[in-house]
Structure formats: structure tokens, C-alpha cells
């Protein structure tokens, strides 16, 4: 549908995908709401765009991706994904390597490893802070402290962000280390109980309230990283 102030993004994506697959596209934009409603009624569909190859109706953009074997059929698609955490950890690692190179002239440094963890904490906190209410609701499914004190679910993202930023700066370790150690320990115990003792299949709130990341090893890793930093940073400051 193409109207003043609105261009259908899925129409553009469908057209682009067809052209990349070698098809010559005959585009029929729907310019008004009335045209769109009439089209949907005629073809018995509830959404636009609709792609036709020859006389065969393929469907919308998602159907087109399935048609070209880019995605599996809907019944075979998983409702969970690790893509968000892979993206976050990858970017955090690259940032840490870049900072290490800039500061020390080498990508492989102890400080670079610390930056990787603290930056991961900070980025994960940003994900949660986008929708604190949604995060706190999902968090209640498994966090033991949040179940006792509901407000903890709204405090947690700020604590994680504070610890991550301060540890990245190497400042106020007397504050950041206990915060990281506390929330990491509570989180690790909660995740371990929910996943490995109670055998529950839940979504992880680690990347926000609308997460499709399964609760499990990734969630436990996030908390173990905070525990490590909560112990290691003060030790390094005192002994190294």
C-alpha cells in the first residue's frame, strides 16, 4: 500500500527479494484504503502486500521467504532465538578489542577481557531499560528475589547498568563490585534453580521484556560474568 505519508515496508522488501531472485516485478501499488480493502476482499486475504508468481498466489513477505527456502515453513519455525545475545556479545567483543588496541597497542590484553564483560553488562542493561515494565514482568517468572520483592525487577536494570559503566571506567569499585556480585549471585541461583532443578522452559529477560531467547546457559553466563567481575575487579585493584 502506497499513500501520502505511508509506504508499505513489506511491499518494498518483497519487491527487492523478488528482484534479487531474478524475477521481473510488475508492481501494482494500492493507493487508497478503499483499494486496499477491495483487494483483500477479492483475494480473501487479511494483509498486504501479496505476491503472485504467474497465476499462483504466494502470499506476504514471510510466505515469500519460505517459498524461496530462506526460512523454514511456519510449523517448523522455532519461537526461540539466540540472535540478540550473539549480536550483543559480538559487538561488545569488538568494542573491547578496539579499546584495547587504542589504549595498549594490542587486542589481547587483560583489560580488554574486562572491558568485554563490562560492556556486555552495559549493553544488556540498555536492552532491559528500553522497557523496564516488560522486563520486570518477564523477570518475575524465575528470579527468586523479585518474587519476594517485586520492585527488584525494576531496580535490576539500573544496577546492572551502573556496575557495567563504572567497571568500564575502572571507577568506584567499592560500589560497582558489590552491586555486580549481588545481582549476579541472585541471578545465577535463580536461573540454575528454574532451568536445571525445576526443569522449566522459559524465555530469558536478559535482553528485555519481549525476548525470545530461551532461559538457560546464556542467562547463567551473564550472571556468572557479573560474579566474576564483582570478585576480580577489587582483587586486581588491591594486588596488581
Automatic annotation (TrEMBL):
The chain crosses the membrane at residues 171-192, 213-235. Pathway: One-carbon metabolism; methylamine degradation. Residues 113-233 form the Methylamine utilisation protein MauE domain. It is found in: Membrane. GO terms for biological process: methylamine metabolic process. Residues 8-58 form the Glutaredoxin domain. This is Methylamine utilization protein MauE. One of its GO terms (cellular component) is membrane. Keywords: Membrane, Transmembrane, Transmembrane helix. It comes from the Bacteria.
Amino acid at each position: 500500500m502506497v499513500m501520502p505519508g505511508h509506504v508499505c515496508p513489506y511491499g518494498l522488501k518483497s519487491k527487492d527479494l523478488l528482484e534479487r531472485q531474478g524475477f521481473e516485478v510488475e508492481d501494482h501499488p494500492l493507493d487508497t484504503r478503499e483499494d486496499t480493502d477491495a483487494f483483500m476482499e477479492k483475494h480473501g486475504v487479511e494483509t498486504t502486500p501479496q505476491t503472485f508468481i504467474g497465476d499462483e498466489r504466494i502470499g506476504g513477505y514471510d510466505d515469500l521467504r519460505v517459498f524461496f527456502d530462506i526460512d523454514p515453513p511456519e510449523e517448523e519455525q522455532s519461537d526461540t532465538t539466540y540472535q540478540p545475545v550473539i549480536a550483543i556479545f559480538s559487538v561488545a567483543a569488538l568494542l573491547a578489542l578496539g579499546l584495547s588496541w587504542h589504549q595498549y597497542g594490542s587486542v589481547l590484553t587483560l583489560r580488554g577481557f574486562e572491558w568485554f564483560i563490562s560492556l556486555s553488562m552495559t549493553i544488556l542493561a540498555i536492552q532491559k531499560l528500553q522497557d523496564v515494565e516488560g522486563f520486570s514482568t518477564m523477570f518475575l517468572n524465575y528470579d527468586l528475589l523479585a518474587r519476594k520483592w517485586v520492585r527488584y525487577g525494576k531496580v535490576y536494570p539500573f544496577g546492572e547498568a551502573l556496575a557495567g559503566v563504572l567497571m568500564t571506567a575502572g571507577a568506584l569499585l567499592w560500589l560497582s563490585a558489590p552491586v555486580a556480585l549481588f545481582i549476579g549471585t541472585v541471578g545465577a541461583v535463580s536461573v540454575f534453580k528454574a532451568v536445571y532443578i525445576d526443569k522449566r522452559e522459559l524465555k530469558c529477560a536478559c535482553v528485555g521484556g519481549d525476548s525470545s531467547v530461551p532461559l538457560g546457559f546464556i542467562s547463567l553466563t551473564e550472571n556468572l560474568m557479573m560474579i566474576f567481575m564483582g570478585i576480580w575487579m577489587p582483587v586486581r585493584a588491591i594486588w596488581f
